User: Which sequence fits this backbone?
């Protein structure tokens, strides 16, 4: 069954696959995670703020992003960003936004909706008495959030946040629809150039599996260590 | 903004010659719904089986189910679809592979099977947690009455477990619908693909994608409403649901 | 300002439910006032209004001359001068004991780290828990946590201390270790308002006792009068039941 296949194509292209493809994938994952968590936390705070316009906007944004397929959102931002850039800078024509920048903005804004739901659950799980105690000491809203609530919320939701990061890592493969060279894109390019679809796609599957599985095992180990004793 | 708005584009004939752009989008919607439903059937059937296997006392069943779930969970959906579509035909005996490649609507078959198995792993996890949420005594009571393991699952555990997991299962079904869009990479002409085509032919980017967005939101709303109705219908009187 | 806390005819609603009905009372400087009453009478609500943790819909509370409802009042600043101890301790579980005491000193009062730490150490010694300064709250018993909570409130050098059922969540054996700290505090002249069921404590240390029921102040008398011959029949009934133990 495997006699027709030439797996050496994998080894001869390792530098391209990993230094171009995987590097893009990992950078996108890391940056979008950081941006997504920060933005997501802000959105969660907006949603919980109780200020009508603000919380409705946050809820609407979150619900919209979670209702649409990621592929559609990728297309949306790909076509929208040049016009937004034009409006922001005041240029005369839509500006050219690079592939990486477009992907980064898309992923950050999309995943922020998911991170915000996680952070919202985390914040709501903190007993109300903690907020009262913070205020009773004279701390102001941002101080109570920064020093008392958010540190606890993060620690409580760490496992879920990291799991979402692993999902983000897998989602990066969808930049394929824009022909961007992430890890899958690189594997695909070689597959089509050399006619080695089976070898490259099997290899891609194995690599994604190995990384995702390893990360999820690490997350499982982490849980035991960071639980806060109440 | 250098963009020519033309909301009337939907009623203009599409260059494919088969009707209007609106018709094109609606046909895409049809493929989305049909693919999602077929995939969901696979997801439910296999997911329930594997989920139950995770809770059985048999070590080999547990192990198999774990491997199954980890396999489908750790490989991105698009890669899985490529494996089904490009790799599987090559690994089968010549004749079978050839037949697969020449199948009409190959993209559809690949899509719903691929998405179905991908989602089945998530359904399996939901079923497992649903069964796990039931009090230990339920299975014991079934056993005490003389029910076999199969009967205990069928008549005691699963009916309650499914009611408990109805909300997260609804989310998974919505995910299934969203995931059909990934199949555009193997040529399925679902809604997002058609919106993209419309954009490529007519250059009316925002009209095309707005329509697709609204259609997805509409489908979402219908599913959520339907599920709420279902939840009320199957609710057990007096039982406080897990929160 | 003889009156540290002046509660002037305050009313408070939670949605359609009226939790406080035109309550008027005061706490003089150096006084210890105990608030008691059956469950749901509004005593916890009352004390939470004193440091504006809960808003009031009518009436006013004047704290050391500052009105809580005046629009220009800086509430966080006011709260930093009022110490509060909660029924469930509410220590910050992710911070060490020492950091629990230092956080508000540094962020609200702007004290430098060294000064805040010195103060924290002094207070922990005072409540007898200096050995636990580097532990996390989850590693301490309930009584120990509550004593740390008292120290945390005292670290802000408050002008008045509020206690919301400080011993209700404690195992019986630990109640006295907390009450001892409170008695010592009272004897040093701290103005205190204490919501509690511990009538022994009230008898020993209180200057006045307030009895509430259904959102109203039913009895507001000096200690001797309250325990000797309360005027209202409801208070008499309450006392007879509670002093049976």
Assistant:
């Amino acid at each position: 069954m495997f006699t027709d296949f030439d797996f050496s194509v994998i080894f001869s292209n390792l530098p391209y696959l990993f230094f171009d493809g995987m590097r893009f994938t990992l950078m996108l994952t890391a940056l979008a995670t950081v941006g997504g968590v920060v933005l997501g936390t802000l959105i969660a705070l907006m949603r919980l703020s109780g200020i009508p316009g603000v919380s409705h906007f946050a809820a609407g944004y979150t619900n919209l992003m979670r209702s649409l397929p990621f592929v559609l959102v990728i297309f949306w931002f790909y076509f929208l960003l040049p016009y937004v850039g034009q409006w922001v800078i005041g240029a005369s024509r839509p500006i050219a936004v690079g592939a990486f920048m477009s992907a980064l903005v898309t992923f950050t804004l999309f995943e922020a909706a998911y991170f915000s739901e996680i952070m919202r659950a985390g914040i709501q799980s903190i007993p109300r008495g903690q907020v009262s105690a913070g205020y009773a000491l004279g701390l102001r809203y941002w101080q109570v959030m920064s020093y008392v609530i958010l540190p606890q919320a993060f620690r409580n939701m760490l496992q879920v946040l990291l799991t979402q990061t692993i999902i983000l890592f897998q989602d990066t493969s969808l930049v394929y629809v824009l022909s961007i060279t992430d890890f899958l894109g690189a594997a695909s390019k070689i597959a089509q150039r050399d006619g080695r679809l089976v070898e490259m796609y099997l290899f891609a599957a194995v690599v994604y599996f190995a990384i995702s599985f390893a990360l999820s095992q690490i997350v499982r180990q982490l849980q035991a260590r960071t639980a806060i004793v109440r | 903004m250098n963009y020519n708005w033309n909301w009337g584009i939907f009623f203009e004939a599409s260059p494919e010659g088969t009707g209007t752009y609106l018709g094109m989008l609606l046909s895409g919607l049809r493929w989305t719904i049909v693919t999602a439903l077929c995939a969901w059937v696979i997801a439910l059937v296999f997911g329930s089986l594997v989920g139950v296997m995770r809770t059985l006392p048999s070590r080999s069943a547990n192990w198999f189910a774990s491997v199954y779930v980890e396999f489908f969970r750790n490989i991105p959906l698009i890669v899985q679809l490529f494996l089904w579509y490009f790799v599987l035909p090559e690994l089968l005996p010549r004749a079978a592979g050839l037949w697969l490649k020449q199948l009409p609507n190959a993209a559809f078959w690949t899509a719903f099977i691929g998405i179905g198995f991908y989602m089945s792993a998530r359904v399996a996890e939901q079923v497992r947690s649903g069964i796990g949420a039931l009090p230990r005594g339920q299975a014991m009571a079934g056993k005490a009455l003389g029910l076999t393991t199969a009967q205990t699952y069928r008549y005691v555990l699963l009916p309650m477990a499914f009611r408990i997991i109805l909300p997260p299962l609804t989310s998974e079904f919505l995910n299934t619908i969203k995931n059909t869009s990934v199949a555009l990479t193997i040529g399925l002409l679902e809604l997002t693909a058609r919106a993209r085509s419309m954009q490529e032919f007519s250059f009316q980017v925002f009209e095309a994608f707005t329509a697709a967005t609204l259609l997805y939101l509409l489908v979402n709303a219908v599913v959520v409403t339907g599920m709420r109705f279902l939840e009320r219908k199957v609710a057990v009187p007096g039982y406080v649901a897990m929160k | 300002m003889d009156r540290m806390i002046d509660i002037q005819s305050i009313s408070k609603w939670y949605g359609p439910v009226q939790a406080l009905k035109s309550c008027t009372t005061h706490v003089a400087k150096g006084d210890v006032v105990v608030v008691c009453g059956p469950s749901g009478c509004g005593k916890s609500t009352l004390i939470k209004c004193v440091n504006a943790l809960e808003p009031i819909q009518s009436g006013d509370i004047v704290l050391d001359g500052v009105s809580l409802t005046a629009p220009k009042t800086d509430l966080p600043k006011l709260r930093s001068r009022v110490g509060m101890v909660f029924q469930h301790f509410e220590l910050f579980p992710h911070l060490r004991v020492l950091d629990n005491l230092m956080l508000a000193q540094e962020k609200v009062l702007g004290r430098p780290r060294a000064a805040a730490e010195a103060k924290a150490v002094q207070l922990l010694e005072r409540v007898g828990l200096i050995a636990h300064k580097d532990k996390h709250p989850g590693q301490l018993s309930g009584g120990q946590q509550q004593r740390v909570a008292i120290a945390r409130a005292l670290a802000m050098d408050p002008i008045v201390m509020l206690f919301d059922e400080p011993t209700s969540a404690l195992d019986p054996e630990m109640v006295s270790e907390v009450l001892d700290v409170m008695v010592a505090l009272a004897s040093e002249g701290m103005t205190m308002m204490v919501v509690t069921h511990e009538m022994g404590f009230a008898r020993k240390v209180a200057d006045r006792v307030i009895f509430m029921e259904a959102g109203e102040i039913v009895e507001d008398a000096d200690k001797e009068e309250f325990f000797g011959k309360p005027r209202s029949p409801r208070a008499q009934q309450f006392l007879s039941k509670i002093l049976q133990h």
The beta strands of chain C are 3-14, 17-28, 32-36, 58-63, 66-67, 82-85, 160-164, 191-195, 208-213, 216-222. Chain C has nine helices and ten strands. Chains C and B do not touch (no CB pair under 8 Å). The first strand of chain C starts at residue 3 and ends at 14.
